[in-house]
Amino acid sequence: MSQKILYDQNGSVARVLHTNEDGDPFGDFAIETIEDVEPVVESAKILADEHADSGDLKHVARVPVTVVEQAMREGWYHDQAAWRRWCNDPDNKAFRVWKGRV
Question: What number of other Cβ atoms are within 10 A of residue 97's Cβ?
Fold first, then answer.
């Protein structure tokens, strides 16, 4: 029998522990991160309005925690080209602060 245990919640990010065996500390498990990204999208909109003409230094995007964790797991966290692709992907448009091409 599997169990789900909410073990961390910070703002709009929650982490749930999924276990496969009752009470077995050495059994298989998975950790699920759940995030309500609406606050991230809203803050990106506000920043875009505030910094529409900010000169040379640009705040490009607000990145959800779940995406940062994905980048770490998949090994592209330190890859600038991968982050450029993520930022320029139309599917991630809602997270963009600066609307130009990265």
Answer: 21
What's the distance, CA 40 to chain centroid? 9
Residues 6+ apart with CB under 8 A from 83: 71, 76, 102
- Shared domain for 6 and 54, answered yes or no, is no
Q: Which domain holds residue 63?
A: 37-102
Pair 31, 54 in one domain: no
Count each helix (H run) and each strand (E run) in the chain, helices first: 3, 3
Q: How far apart are CA 65 and CA 40, in angstroms?
A: 10
Least confident of 18-27, 55-64, 80-89: 18-27
| Token pair listed for 59 | 């705040």
pTM of the model: 0.79
Of 48, 57, 62, 56, residue with least CA distance to 92? 62
